[in-house]
Amino acid sequence: MTPASVKGENLKYGSRGHELMYDTIMRKEFEEIGRKYGSKLEKTAVTGKDGEKIELWRLPITEKMRKDISEKGQPLYQAIPAALGLGELIRQYKDRQSEDRAQ
Asked: What is the pTM of this model?
């Protein structure tokens, strides 16, 4: 197998599943963590190796957050077996949203 590269305008990588995971599910989780410590999730941009601007989410660490996590640590998140994968995670997220709306 020979390494290859793809170049061109308007190329996208990832999938809708990845977009849902990183821009919706994880963002919502970090917003909840930030709220607990008085911090807000915000977009920022960094410059990549090729000079391209890349938008990222960041959560500023407050003193309260730093102290609490230093003293108590962070709970571990439940690992999803690789066989279930991203599709199962998305299904569970959508199920949880439906349950929240029903209440």
From this structure: 0.53
Tokens 């410590």 — which residue? 37
Domain with 54, as residue range(s), is 16-73
- Per-run averaged pLDDT (10 residues), the chain, 103 residues: 60 66 83 92 88 88 92 69 63 78 77
Parallel/antiparallel/unpaired status of strands 53-58 and 42-47: antiparallel
Q: Answer whether residue 62 is part of any domain.
A: yes
Contacts of 52 (CB under 8 A, 6+ apart): none
Per the structure block, which two tokens stand in for 97? 């949203």
- Residue 67 CB neighbours (<10 A): 11
